[in-house]
Amino acid sequence: MGRVALVTGGTRGIGRCISETLKANGYRVAANYCGNVEAAQKFTEETGITSYRWDVSNYAECEAAVAKITQDMGPIEILVNNAGITRDATLHRMTYQMWEDVIHTNLTSCFNLARLMIESMRERGFGRIVNIGSINGQAGQYGQVNYAAAKSGIHGFTKALAQEGAAKNITVNAIAPGYVDTDMVRSVPPAVLEKIIAKIPVGRLGRADDIARGVMFLIADNADFVTGSTISINGGQHMY
Ligand code: NDP
């Protein structure tokens, strides 16, 4: 039987594609979502992948969900921290709530789930954690102080935890996508999007499967020498 993988925010957008790609490659997938029940039901009908509803920013809900998935499917050996939101505004218009929502959903969630799984991974001597960061966590972005801080935090979290997991065959890596064609990016005004695409050397937005392929590479059993890295998948928009 394939290893059990949890994909947060796994019912829509990039996460959905990751869930489907993992399933197609023999993993047993649990997909998390938060509020969009209709999308999750459609996803489960179309893919046969079970979806679990909870808020990844809430530690107690994460704890209950990890216990439930483990009971249903067995120990989770692969964690893809993909759930994320934006609440954009320049700092002088950003409320504390917008800051807190983004930091907790995008960054604290990585702590919550990794913390709840790390002991089991250490005991088993196997774990693969992939955190979805962002080009905007690497380069910053006007109007996204909260999002850039959370995503930048993910990159630091990844490197620190990679050092802790290395001796136990637990790899921890990040992917920093550029602009990918999902609901999140479709909410960007068309005129702004046009300017963004003009800055992407390959001349197009990313596709969710560009990111899913990166996840597949990082979670392979024989990818144990790749840890603490951030793979930029951004069409050449930001290189460093
Ligand atoms: P979408 O908005 O299309 O999907 C977001 C997913 O996250 C949904 O499944 C949503 O659930 C889930 N989610 C949101 N908040 C929570 C929460 N509190 N608890 C549990 N699940 C939650 O996003 P994308 O697919 O575009 O983005 C996926 C990841 O990639 C994010 O981390 C994003 O920051 C990152 N990224 C995206 C880029 C892009 O261009 N699209 C670029 C760089 C990074 P529900 O359906 O219930 O709302």
From TrEMBL:
<keyword id="KW-0560">Oxidoreductase</keyword>
<dbReference type="InterPro" id="IPR057326">
    <property type="entry name" value="KR_dom"/>
</dbReference>
<feature type="domain" description="Ketoreductase">
    <location>
        <begin position="3"/>
        <end position="178"/>
    </location>
</feature>
<dbReference type="GO" id="GO:0032787">
    <property type="term" value="P:monocarboxylic acid metabolic process"/>
</dbReference>
<dbReference type="InterPro" id="IPR002347">
    <property type="entry name" value="SDR_fam"/>
</dbReference>
<dbReference type="GO" id="GO:0042619">
    <property type="term" value="P:poly-hydroxybutyrate biosynthetic process"/>
</dbReference>
<protein>
    <submittedName>
        <fullName>Acetoacetyl-coA reductase</fullName>
        <ecNumber>1.1.1.36</ecNumber>
    </submittedName>
</protein>
<dbReference type="InterPro" id="IPR020904">
    <property type="entry name" value="Sc_DH/Rdtase_CS"/>
</dbReference>
<comment type="similarity">
    <text>Belongs to the short-chain dehydrogenases/reductases (SDR) family.</text>
</comment>
<dbReference type="GO" id="GO:0005737">
    <property type="term" value="C:cytoplasm"/>
</dbReference>
<dbReference type="Pfam" id="PF13561">
    <property type="entry name" value="adh_short_C2"/>
</dbReference>
<dbReference type="InterPro" id="IPR036291">
    <property type="entry name" value="NAD(P)-bd_dom_sf"/>
</dbReference>
<dbReference type="GO" id="GO:0018454">
    <property type="term" value="F:acetoacetyl-CoA reductase activity"/>
</dbReference>
<dbReference type="InterPro" id="IPR011283">
    <property type="entry name" value="Acetoacetyl-CoA_reductase"/>
</dbReference>
<dbReference type="InterPro" id="IPR050259">
    <property type="entry name" value="SDR"/>
</dbReference>
